[in-house]
């Protein structure tokens, strides 16, 4: 009883990959939410600096700064929620498999060419 066999859980490779993908996805979303909160706080700060502290009061520069920052946030949002669906891990896997198949085909073609060249050179020597 003192030295019981401890059962270790083995995670299947597919499950491990799914777990890693899920963790990466959660990290992406968390960073997007942080970006959004910082965007809101930063926007309020820029408005306060321009309007209340009267820095560059003659011109509403905060509008341009917030617009640029909003554009960057939209790109980040698009990357997390749209691009990742179309070009996510599954897309990478299929592209990788396609490239591997192309490489295998090229190697097979080169091996065939080398064999053919070797046979042709052997026939030339025997004649």
Automatic annotation (TrEMBL):
The keyword Transmembrane helix applies. Keywords: Coiled coil, Membrane, Transmembrane, Transmembrane helix. Pfam families: 2TM. This is 2TM domain-containing protein. The chain crosses the membrane at residues 32-49, 61-82. Residues 93-120 form a coiled coil. InterPro entries: 2TM_dom. It comes from Sinomicrobium pectinilyticum. The keyword Zinc-finger does not apply. Residues 20-100 form the 2TM domain.
